Amino acid sequence: MKYRRLGKTDLHVSVVGVGTWQFGGEWGMDFTQGEVDQILDKAKELGINLIDTAECYGDHLSEKLIGKYLKKDRREDWIVATKFGHHFHEKFTRTNDYSAASVLQQLDRSLKALQTEYIDLYQFHSGPDEAFDNDELWTLLDKQIAAGKIRHLGLSIAKNDNLHQTAAASKIHAQTIQVVYNRLDRKPEEDVFVSCEQQDLGVLARVPLASGYLSGKYKPGTVFAGNDVRHRHDQEHVSKLLAQVEKIKEQEVPAGMDMAQWALAWCLQNPAVTTVIPGSKSPAQVEANAKAAEYVSEDHPQAVKK
Predict the structure, then answer these.
(1) Angle 288-289-293 (CA atoms, 0-180°, nearest 5)?
(2) Domain that holds residue 145
(3) Minimal CA–CA distance to 13: which of 152, 109, 147?
(4) What does the pLDDT look like over 28-87, one tens digit per residue?
(5) Any domain includes 131
(6) Which residue, of 3, 232, 247, 276, is most buried by count of CB atoms within 10 Å of its CB?
(7) How far is the C-alpha of 170 from the C-alpha of 40, rounded, in Å?
(8) What is the sign, positive or negative, of the torsion defined by CA atoms of 272, 192, 23, 257?
(9) What is the pTM of this model?
(10) What is the mean pLDDT of residues 208-224?
(11) What is the tens place of the pLDDT at every residue in 145-202?
């Protein structure tokens, strides 16, 4: 595994982390505690130290599964990132609340679910600019840092071209940006990454495999089953994506190289990107994702030796 400095923080994160939206049950399967333990055990074995979750992956369900794992492991070995602002009601149904009073309640619920006294990275979760511009919210969160409940603040921007929030990150003491970035969606390269580099912000690239389309497993014409989240995607758009993936596989992926590993390494070669956080359904997927680190250069501006 390789590691990078996460922006201006004192955290050194593995270039491949573990995304955990799937633990909330919206990716087509429910996870037992044993299955989550096996996934995180494999991640740790391979040197992965970053777990990214959220309050609304289930009603703190993903956090609870992670928390039970952390309770029996060495908490200090992990960098735990979670988010705030959404209330889960049922699958694919949420309401938003970024008010200071509500966020304080959400923070305490996340700490309880994660069975930890502190969160390493607490992220504003895909909120509108109006909620972001609320000084009361950031004053509250600064106080939680002083109280030791939070180590660092970050932003998980909803639109991957949201320069309003990105440009103001340092002003509200956020030190990281989480954004959708992959070979099929390069929008952040235009403005957001430039701002991140200017501010020395850590960048967490989410959906680095484009919801699995860049795994190389699916041919044009694939139709996803009803219990798969991709079943909700527009079929015409899916067909275009898969045709694009087929062309990328033929023209850009080296012969004999696993496409998913190539796609993760492709994200990580960008000088603005610190880490990728693909989801994993099994220990085998964790292992496959981790191998992307073998193709990552050590001369990245955020690289550290560990």
Answers:
(1) 110
(2) 3-215+258-304
(3) 152
(4) 789 999 999 999 999 999 999 999 999 988 889 999 999 999 999 899 999 999 999 988
(5) yes
(6) 276
(7) 32
(8) negative
(9) 0.93
(10) 78
(11) 999 999 999 999 999 999 999 999 999 999 999 999 999 999 999 999 999 999 999 9
3-state secondary structure the chain: CCEEECCCCCCEEECECEECHHHHCCCCCCCCHHHHHHHHHHHHHCCCCEEECCCCCCCCHHHHHHHHHHHCCCHHHCEEEEEECEEEEECCEEEECCCHHHHHHHHHHHHHHHCCCCEEEEEEECCCHHHHCCHHHHHHHHHHHHCCCEEEEEEECCCCCCHHHHHCCHHHCEEEEEEECECCECHHHCCHHHHHHHHCCEEEEECCCCCCHHHCCCCCCCCCCCCCHHHHCCHHHHHHHHHHHHHHHHHCCCCCCCHHHHHHHHHHCCCCCCEECCECCCHHHHHHHHHHHHHCCCCCCCEECC
CA distance 69 to 51: 12
Report how many domains make up the chain: 1
* Predicted confidence (pLDDT) at residue 209 exceeds the cutoff of 70: yes
User: Residue 139 class from Cβ within 10 Å (0-12 exposed, 13-18 middle, 19+ buried)?
Assistant: exposed
Distance of CA 134 to the CA centre of its chain: 24
In a domain, 38, yes or no: yes
Q: Which residues contact 256 (CB under 8 A, 6 or more apart)?
A: none
Q: Which two tokens stand for residue 116?
A: 């930890």
The reply to whether 246 falls in a domain is no
Q: Domain with 206 in it: what CATH number?
A: 3.20.20.100
Structure confidence at residue 212 as a pLDDT band (50, 70, 90): confident
- The reported pLDDT for the residue numbered 215 is 85
